[in-house]
Amino acid sequence: MTPTRGLAIAVSVVAIATSACAPRSRAARPLSPNQGSHAAVTAAWSVALDFAPTAVAADAGGVVLTVDHRGVVALDDRGRERWVSELDGASIGSPLVFADRVIVPTSRADGTGGCAGLDRETGETIWMYQAIGTRGVAVAELRGTVICVMRDGRTAGILPGPGRVQWQYTFGKGIDPSSVEVSDGTVVAVDEASGLYAFTARYGPRWGMKWNDVETGASRHLLNLGTGGPVSAPVVVGPGTFTVAASFPNELYMVDAHSLRQTRIAVPAAEGFDPACVPLVVDRLVVVAARAGEVTAVDLDRRQPRWTVRTAEPMRHSHPVLVGDAVGLATGTGRAVAYRLANGAPVRLPAPRGRVIAMLGHAGRPGVEVFGRDAGGGRIERWEPESGSGSV
Length: 392
Fold this sequence. Notes:
Layout (H helix, E strand, L loop, with lengths): L28 E2 L10 E9 L5 E5 L2 E6 L3 E5 L5 E5 L10 E3 L2 E7 L5 E7 L5 E7 L4 E7 L2 E6 L4 E4 L6 E5 L10 E2 L7 E3 L4 E8 L2 E8 L5 E6 L10 E4 L2 E6 L4 E6 L5 E5 L13 E3 L2 E5 L4 E6 L4 E7 L10 E3 L2 E5 L5 E5 L14 E6 L7 E7 L2 E9 L7
Parallel strand pairs: 1-27
Antiparallel strand pairs: 2-33, 3-4, 4-5, 5-6, 7-8, 8-9, 9-10, 11-12, 12-13, 13-14, 15-17, 16-17, 17-18, 18-19, 20-21, 21-22, 22-23, 24-25, 25-26, 26-27, 28-29, 29-30, 31-32, 32-33
């Protein structure tokens, strides 16, 4: 399959809103994001798109967007189109930009899929991995191996260059694959130090976090997180240590993958957590957002929340990002908010055009790309902290 030009698509957007899954100590306090902020954020540039993006990834060369089930678009670092690929089944799962490849989870209308490897420079489809009887949900990279996670918890390890399969496994021995559900919009946590990767899933009435060895694909452990409700996507907070937010009881779990030692910190979440929520880790601080709108920064060393605020809107599919010395989020209704990491004080943000669906930050650059949807299709804007706002 080769890339084609002129993809003009208007689709309904799954809100991969950038928020966090989270705790709250003291009484939650409603705050306006435009009140008394310490560090304002300004819009450096804005570009209209003739399509509505559903998931995004970035590297030094620009950003890559998926358009639900229709294709993949690459833009340069100023939002100008580089190439378009009409990849069949490009899903709402976040793509991965790694070396000279763009890896995309695929999910076709008939329920099939897996993942695909595209050339980073041209968008040409180099290889496709097709899972039988299921579809792709999430992708990641660890130690030179692409990890493809399927809806039924199946996993495959693939060499990104030629697309050669190194290993593939079902979710767990003795577990019916039809009872397993890995949530759309989730992510895979990868730990370079231990060579482990982790993801969360529902299996039967239970929710759990599973971690496997990237070299062999073999399962290391399945942590039972109970039947209370959804758990967030996992994040790495230290060598061999993963953290998730679990619902009812609402707690932040920190787990040592080797000793299985657990630390639990109570967090406020009136409606629990979204399974596609991804906490933000900044040094030893974890920012998480709950479905009802609670946003909390948790100090892992002190094992308690540093601050909590409550937005007036729910949080869904939340992926928080770092903007200078603040955390930026998009609410479930498409409004962008930001709070200072030090104390939760609101930060002024530009007024976006249309509904914000995602914010994307990446290492080495202090700002974020903001993706939205308006009447004409979509929009990408570059937001940067004002001079002097610094970074954490």
